[in-house]
Prior knowledge:
- This protein is mainly alpha-helical.
- Helix content is 63%, strand content 4%.
- It is built from 5 helices and 2 strands; from the N terminus they run H-H-E-E-H-H-H.
- Bound molecules: zinc ion.
Amino acid sequence: MVYLGMLISGLLLKQFLGCPGNFCLKNMDKKILEQIKKDLLAQKKKIEEDLNAVSHKDEYEKEEHKVTFPDFGDKPDDNALEVGEYSTNLATEKILESSLRDINNALNRIEKGTYGICKYCGKEIDEKRLLIRPVASACVECKSKLQKSS
Ligand SMILES: [Zn+2]
């Protein structure tokens, strides 16, 4: 009986620890969540480095990056190269910035304890999906419904 009591209190404790916010993540393993968080932070660092290579932070807008205009020289050929490089950087910056936004949103959801909850139906997103795509904020069903309607 003592053993059973310990088992039950252990389960209760586990459930309690798994509910940091309004949403209960009792099915989401803490270890998996930690792993996902680590991956997200590593990705974030990488993207920020890539962003710094093509842009500099805007002093006035915290989250925005300004693409650096390259300076190869003053000859017409150099100028053409600069414009080409600039538009490539612009495109790269756009992709990087939106990935960064997704990652920050996912990290926010981890902090708030709402990570792994589909933003459309409120159900838990499959762990396997989250491990492959940690920034996912919608479950497979909602995502495919959305893709069909658009
Ligand atoms: Zn859903």
